[in-house]
Write a structure and sequence with these properties.
mainly alpha; Growth Hormone, Chain: A; 17 helices
Length: 359
């Protein structure tokens, strides 16, 4: 199972920067329609896989196809919205992904029971194809009042220079930590709950919904405060305060998992950890758009690639540490330490950056 999870994460990571470049070069309308249609095809092909090797190849390509979703969305936000709205826009976007993931747990269990796993994947490929068709014909890269003036070239800052800058390295390192922590909730949390608390798959699926549903609000809360601070005299803090608070909250939640004895309490700790991690998402993506502007697709893709590497590391670290130590606590201790370290530079910057003297 770890290999299957890892194959998707690796494909997702490798295709990030190329897909972000496509969004910057050809626009998010064509890019997003293409990637959603492509990953819908690989959703269907997952149901055709006849062995482990085939499944690994399909999952790798599935991840590569899905890589362009959020970088393309970052370019949509840059094209359509002013900076004072970037926080809540990213919050709404990522909360939608979480709600979809939460609904998928019981919905997929129902599809499995009703139609079998192969037909379930065939059916799951349909909505994406419909969405891609509608998006291609209904969406435009710019608002109508800006379309005539935005036949733009890319930023004059070389993308290689941007990606190697201190600001991008920091964003990538922190996104690695966030995804390392979050990925447990969409990969190993389900089997962890089944094994640790002797739950049935149906019971574990219901519990697994809770962190994803509860933390969807984190994106709204964080996005609201990002924009609120941006519009105030505390604008320099707008990308830092929600991120620092989120990492500290995630560190506390993931550490608490190690000493809780009931599935309800453990899931509550998972929810706290993922709530904290999700609080870092909106400021991270708003920050990338701030520093990259017309290269926002490529820059956000690089950050998301680092997050994918974190997801890959998480998918393999959990079973590896379990085999080495005989329990899962080591993974949660490491995740807690990484989140505390990610909060440290944010806190240091907050102590040195003064608010503006006027709003």
């Amino acid at each position: 199972m770890g290999a299957v999870f890892s194959a998707f994460a690796l494909g997702y990571a490798f295709a990030q920067i190329p897909s972000g470049w496509l969004a910057d070069r050809f626009g998010p309308r064509v890019t997003l329609a293409f990637v959603v249609a492509l990953w819908s095809v690989f959703t269907v092909l997952t149901g055709v896989a006849s062995g482990l090797a085939t499944l690994l190849v399909v999952r790798f390509l599935f991840g590569a196809a899905e890589a362009g979703a959020f970088p393309g969305s970052a370019r949509v936000i840059y094209n359509w919205l002013p900076p004072r709205m970037h926080g809540i826009a990213n919050g709404i976007l990522f909360s939608g992904a979480l709600v979809g993931g939460a609904i998928a747990f019981p919905f997929f269990q129902w599809l499995l029971a009703a139609h079998g796993w192969r037909m379930a994947f065939f059916l799951l490929g349909v909505p994406g194809g419909v969405w891609a068709f509608c998006w291609l014909f209904c969406f435009r890269d710019f608002p109508s009042e800006r379309a005539a003036t935005n036949k733009e070239t890319l930023s004059s800052v070389p993308i290689a220079l941007l990606l190697s800058s201190k600001a991008m390295v920091k964003a990538m390192a922190q996104y690695f930590v966030g995804n390392f922590t979050f990925f447990i909730c969409i990969s190993w949390m389900f089997p962890y709950l089944v094994q640790r608390y002797s739950l049935t798959p149906g019971q574990a699926a219901k519990y697994s919904m809770v962190p994803l549903l509860s933390v969807a609000t984190a994106n709204w809360v964080s996005g609201f405060f990002v924009d609120l601070l941006y519009r105030s005299r505390f604008r320099p803090w707008s990308r830092r305060v929600p991120a620092a608070a989120g990492f500290l909250l995630a560190a506390c939640g993931v550490y608490a998992v190690t000493f809780l004895d009931s599935p309800g309490l453990a899931v509550s700790a998972f929810a706290i950890a993922t709530f904290g991690v999700e609080m870092t998402i909106s400021p991270s993506w708003a920050y990338c758009i701030d520093i990259a502007r017309r290269n926002s697709g490529s820059a956000s893709a690089a950050m998301n690639m680092a997050g994918s590497v974190g997801a890959f590391a998480s998918a393999n670290a959990f079973p590896l540490l379990y085999r080495v130590t005989g329990n899962s606590d080591a993974y949660f201790w490491i995740a807690a330490a990484l989140n505390a370290l990610a909060a440290f530079p944010q806190v240091c910057e907050l102590l040195t950056i003064r608010p503006r003297t006027s709003s």
